[in-house]
Amino acid sequence: MSSTPTPAARIALVRHGQTEWSKSGQHTSTTDIDLTDEGVHQAVSVASLLWGLDLQPQTVWSSPRRRARRTASLAGLHVDEIVDDLAEWSYGEYEGLTSTQIHRTNPGWSIFTDGAPGGETPEQVEVRVDRVLARARERLVDGDVALFCHGHISRVLAARWVGLPVSAGALFLMNPAAVTVLGMYHDAPAIEHANVVPFRPPRFAHTAEAAGSEGADAR
Fold this sequence. Notes:
The active site is at residues 16, 88. InterPro entries: His_Pase_superF_clade-1, His_PPase_superfam, PGM_Phosphatase. This is Histidine phosphatase family protein. GO terms for molecular function: protein histidine phosphatase activity. It comes from Nakamurella flava. The chain has a single domain (11-218), classed as Rossmann fold, CATH 3.40.50. The relative contact order is 0.20. It is of the alpha/beta class. A six-stranded mixed β-sheet has the order 3-2-4-1-5-6, with helices on both faces. Strand 5 (179-185) and strand 6 (188-196) form a beta hairpin. The protein is 38% helix and 16% strand.
């Protein structure tokens, strides 16, 4: 009797949970801000999200930032290595600013094509993202790999995995505590799942019942 084949190992990109700055849309790179209460809830939900996607990380790497490290911990995973290359795109002079604020003085600006003044260029980010992916591929022989990182850098990781330029990162969205799965299709790199977010449970049953009663009275 033949055994069931073991699925090919995959890479899970996990964005950190919500912070005050991600909530307000402020660009956050080197600022070492912590998770909000909602971000903590999201991070805890990542464990069931990975389980639902049939991911069992054998290698876990994290950005050096507290928000990424704490998300991994709350997801119940031990970080094997802090990887500087997983840090968020350096925003330089745009650190702490929202896109709306930036566009007032720089209309049409996009981090994926223009980089940031005093920060990193797309070319610089491409080098370190490719470096991370090359190392992660080597670890796939041991099983699934989880990379806990940030919004923009994870979008570039997804784009580069399938051979697209850094500018294509704009085509991939990544919500707080979302998971994007990098896999293979007929021996070619593929995006297996994109921007999968934690399940948000429905309101308590009695709330729904109360609303139904009010509706009945109105009729």
